[in-house]
Amino acid sequence: SGDGRLGQDLLAASRKVIYRSGLSFGLYMMEDLVAGKIPDAKLYVLLNPWRIDSAEAKKLEGVLHKKGKTTLWLYGAGDTSLADFRSLTGLNVQEKKGQSFDNTIKTAANAGSLPGNAALSGIGANPLYTVNEAAGVQVLGRYQNVSGSPAGYAMTEKDGWTSIFYGSSSLTLEVLKSAARKAGATVFSDVSSTSGDVLYADQGLAVLHTATAGNK
Hints:
Elements: H1 4-19, H2 30-34, E1 43-46, H3 54-64, E2 70-74, H4 82-89, E3 93-96, E4 105-107, E5 119-120, E6 128-131, E7 137-143, E8 151-158, E9 161-166, H5 173-183, E10 198-201, E11 206-209
Parallel strand pairs: 1-2, 2-9
Antiparallel strand pairs: 3-6, 4-5, 4-7, 7-8, 8-9, 10-11
C-alpha cells in the first residue's frame, strides 16, 4: 500500500473519473466516514481502505451495512486485516504476493450494466487481491493475465445492502456508473468515457460543463 504508482492511480486518476461521471458526489476522509460525519449516500466508494483497524471496521459496518446502501471497494485491504476486510465487504478476499501481477480485469458476460468480455486495465500490483467464489457471490470479472483467471471483480448482497469489490487499481467510468445504477443513484449524464463532460450538482443547482459538441 506504499506504492506511489498505486496511490497515484487510485487517488489522483480516480478524481478525473468521478468528476466526469455525471453523479452528484462528495470527497471525504475515511475518519469522517467512520465517525458518521458525512452526508447520507446511496453509494460509497472506498478508494484506499488500507489501514482500518478492528474498532474502525465495526463502526464502518454500522454505516455501510444498512438496507439500501451500496459500497464499491477498490484494489484491496492493504494493512487492514483480511478478517476485517472480509467482514466489511461480505466477500472472502484473499491476497497473492511475491510478484507484480497484471490486474487487468475482463468482465463477465453478466457483469451488471457493463458489456461482457470488456478489458478494464490496471497498472500491475503486489499483492493481488482475489475473491473466493461461493454461494451468494456474483463474479463480474476475472483477472485476464493471471494464472487460473481468479475473480477480481465481484458483488454480494446481504440483508438489503450491497458490496462490490473491484481489484483493479484503475477506476473506470463504466465501473463507477454500473455501481451507481446498482445503488439506485441518479446518473445525470449518460455519455462515453471520452467525452470529458463534467457535472456540478447540489440541492439547488446543476451545471454541465461540456467538452465536446453534440446533444447531451
